[in-house]
Amino acid sequence: MAKINNQFLPQDGRYDDLKVYKKAECICDITDYFCKAFLNGRKDRTVDQMVQAARSGKQNIVEGTAASATSKETEIKLLNVAKASHQELLEDYKDYLQHNGLTLWQKGHPHYEHTRRICREHNDREFYIDILPKCTDEMIANIAITLICQEDLMLRNLIEYHKQEFLQQGGIREEMTRGRMAYRNSHANTPKQPIPSNTMLSRREQELNEREARILKKEQELNRKEEELKIREEEIIRLMKIGGIGENRE
Question: Are 166 and 76 in contact (CB under 8 A)?
C-alpha cells in the first residue's frame, strides 16, 4: 500500500475552530431570534432577506474553507460572498433602527464601548442565546451591528492573507507540480509500477474531465454572483454616504 503524503494538498477544511466562523454563527443565531421576536408580523421580504443573508455569511465561510485545498481562488471568492452578505444584513439592521426611531450606538453613546468589548470577547453562541431574551430590539440590533462590523474586519484580513498566500505559493497546478516533483525525487530508486491499461486510463481521464466541468460550472456561478455582489456593495456604499454612516466599529 502506498504511503499517504499529508503534505500534498492537505485535506484540512476545518472551519469550526475559526473565530470568523464562530462569530458568523453568533450573527446567524441573533438574526434568527431578532426576526422571530420583532419582525414576525412583517408581510414584506425583509425577514427572508435578513435570515438568508445571515445564513449565507456563515455557509460561505464553510464552503470556502472546504474548497481551500483545491482552489484558493474559489475560497477567496466565497469569503467575499460571505463578506457581502454580512454587509447587506448590516444595512437591514441600520434601516430597522432608523425606521423605528431607535438609536444607533456610536462613539459617545454610553453603551458603545461596552458593547464593542463584549462582542470582541464573546464568540460563543451560548452567551448570546442566554442574554437575548433580556434585551430590547434596539439592544439586539446594536449588538448585531457591532458583531457584523467586527466580522467584516476579520473577513477582510482573512481574504488578504489568502491573497498573499496565493501570490507566494500559487494555486492547485503549482501545488500538484511541487507534489509530483517531490514524489519523483523520493521514489527515484523505486521499481516502476505496471502502467495501467488503456481502459483504466480512459476511465480516469473521463472522471477528471467530469470533475473539471463541475468546478468550471461552480466558478462560473461564483463569477456571476460576484458581479451581482459588486453592484450591491456599490449601492450599499452609496446609501451609507447618503445616511452619513461610515464609522468603523472594529
Answer: yes
pLDDT tops 80 at residue 43: no
Mean of per-residue pLDDT scores for the chain: 81
C-alpha cell belonging to residue 30: 441573533
CA distance 77 to 177: 24
**Residue-wise DSSP of 169-185:** H--HHHHHHHHHHHHHH
C-alpha to C-alpha distance for 21 and 226, rounded to whole angstroms: 21
- pLDDT of 159 > 80? The answer is yes
Instruction: Pick left, alpha or beta for residue 122 (phi over 0 → left; psi -120 to 50 → alpha; otherwise beta).
Output: beta
User: Is the pLDDT at 184 greater than 70, yes or no?
Assistant: no
**Mean pLDDT within 78-88:** 94
Residues in the chain: 250
Its pTM stands at 0.65
Compute CA distances 149 → 36, 63, 186, 227, whole Å: 23, 22, 48, 23
Dump the DSSP string for 61-87.
Answer: HHHHHHTTTT-HHHHHHHHHHHHHHHH
